[in-house]
Amino acid sequence: MSSTKREEVLPAGLQQKIDRYVKLWKREYGGAWPAFPEKEQPLARYPRAAERLLDDVLFRGLRILDGFTAFVYCYAPFGWLEKYRSFKNRRYQNSSPEKEQPSHSSNKAEILPRVEVSELK
């Protein structure tokens, strides 16, 4: 860890939430975890039950979304994934504020042929 003082970059609300959870974990683990230097935090309180419930629901929802994403990428037909990628790329190209201007120079990028996975074996 650095010994120099640095400016806080986290929003105050997020830092307070972290402080509340650190205080809770210190109580639950008898001060053994998390193991990092103590800060002066006399105003920190424990997170309320509603805050913990909402955080737990949000965490579980994000884990389900992450698992679903992995499932889709593993088992969806390749054609669907190509269409999705094409749609996503087209959407981001259309939202770009700077449109590409046609280049009249002679040094254009070389377009490489597509390589199929079966060709790599």
List keywords for this structure.
121 residues; mainly alpha; 50% helix
Describe the structure.
The structure is a single chain. This protein has helices spanning 12-28, 49-75, 78-94. It is 50% helix and 0% strand. The protein has a domain at 12-95. With 121 residues, the chain is mainly α. The mean pLDDT is 82. The two termini are 46 Å apart. It is elongated. The longest helix is centred in the middle third of the chain and has 27 residues, at 49-75.
What is the CA-CA span between the terminal residues? 46 Å
Helicity level, as a percent range?
A: 40-55%
Number of helices: 3
Instruction: State the major sheet.
Output: none
Order of helices and strands: HHH
User: What is the β-strand count?
Assistant: 0
Name the average pLDDT.
82
Summed up:
With about 120 residues, this protein is mainly alpha-helical. It has helices spanning about 10-30, 50-75, 80-95.
